[in-house]
Amino acid sequence: MSDIQTEIEASLAGVEPEVEVLLAEVSGSTLRLFIDHPAGVTLDLCERVSGHLGEYRDRWSLEVSSPGLDRPLTKPQHYRRFLGRRARVRLREAQHGHKQMTGELVGASDSEITLAAGEGIVTIPYEQIVRSNLVPGD
Prior knowledge:
Largest sheet: 5 strands, antiparallel
Oligomer: single chain
Radius of gyration: 16 Å
Strand order of the largest sheet: 7-6-5-4-8
CATH architecture of the largest domain: 2-Layer Sandwich
Number of domains: 2
Strand content: 35-45%
Order of helices and strands: HEEHHEHEEEEE
Shape: elongated
Number of helices: 4
Helix content: 10-25%
């Protein structure tokens, strides 16, 4: 998890305690947040979250949205929640000759995930994952 994501989670904890920050990423002059909420993500919730993050709006153009169908996976509990679903995983270093793998999530511990991919059953430590998301349509 990035430092900025940790900062934003801490900022929101007191004002929007049920909001989960799934991913916070800076791309150029834009800060993108993907959030989730037990009751779902509405436009009103996105606007409220944006309003709470004025200090970040001063530095970046802020985009706040729901995770969508290709939901990012960033924490062990995300992977556990979606066991049985297909995910795309981008790696820091090539594994089995690939820096990206797509397959079914078949396991998730506190230190690694297990993916049934074209290469077979592959175990990937979290520290090797650059980015991961669900694959829509499954």
